[in-house]
C-alpha cells in the first residue's frame, strides 16, 4: 500500500544557518516559487532568495 501525502505531517528538509534551521530549496526557481506562494497565502510581505553559504541549495529571507 502506498503512503498518501499528508501536508499536516510533512516536514521539509532543512539545514542550519547560524542558529536557525532554514528550509532547503534545490534550485533558485523552486525557492522563488515558494516565496511567491508564501507571500500570497500567508501574507508574509516580500521575501528574497539566497544561495546557502554552507551547501549547494537556496533559502528564503525576509526583505
Structure explained in plain terms:
By secondary structure, the chain is an alpha+beta fold. It has one domain (12-62). Helices cover 24% and strands 29% of the residues. It is built from one helix and four strands; from the N terminus they run E-E-H-E-E. The strands form two sheets. Strands 1-2 form a two-stranded antiparallel ribbon. A two-stranded antiparallel ribbon has the order 3-4. The longest helix has 15 residues, at 28-42. The mean pLDDT is 91.
Task: Kindly summarize this structure in a few lines.
With about 60 residues, this protein is an alpha+beta fold. The protein has one helix at about 30-40; strands at about 15, 20-25, 45-50, 60. Strands 1-2 form a two-stranded antiparallel sheet. The chain has a two-stranded antiparallel sheet with strand order 3-4.
Task: Determine the number of helices (DSSP H or I, runs of at least 4 residues).
Answer: 1
Q: In which order are the strands of the major sheet placed?
A: 1-2
What's the SSE pattern?
EEHEE
Range of strand content: 25-35%
Domain module count: 1
Task: Give the distance, in angstroms, between the N- and C-terminal Cα atoms.
Answer: 44 Å
Summarize the helices and strands and which ones pair or pack.
Blueprint (H helix, E strand, L loop, with lengths): L13 E4 L2 E4 L4 H15 L4 E5 L6 E5 L1
Antiparallel strand pairs: 1-2, 3-4
Keywords:
globular; two-stranded antiparallel ribbon; 24% helix; alpha+beta
